[in-house]
Amino acid sequence: MPAEIDFQTNIFYRGMEQNAQGFDKAQLNTLLALSKDILKDKATLSLNVNDLFNSRKRQDETRTPNVLTTSSFPWRERQITLSLLYRFNQKKKEGNGQRQGQEEEIQY
Question: Is the Cβ–Cβ distance between 108 and 84 less than 8 Å?
Fold first, then answer.
């Protein structure tokens, strides 16, 4: 991305499910994250958005011979988080694909 901005997104989709008495409609959730190192790489500013389109809902319909029931349950509304991480007397640790605490395997 331009201006050395890191970008990450996650899209969750669950298709419609049918059961013996009805069905659950499809669900969609989109997460977006942007981050930028600032102050000569001493700090990182991050913006995270959960449920970007505010579309995550559980909707279902149940049918029996005498009753038709429909329901809609919205999950938590869109959440936006802005955070600042400042590194006191530390350099930014560059990721190399390993989790913290893992030792690198040496090949001979």
Answer: no
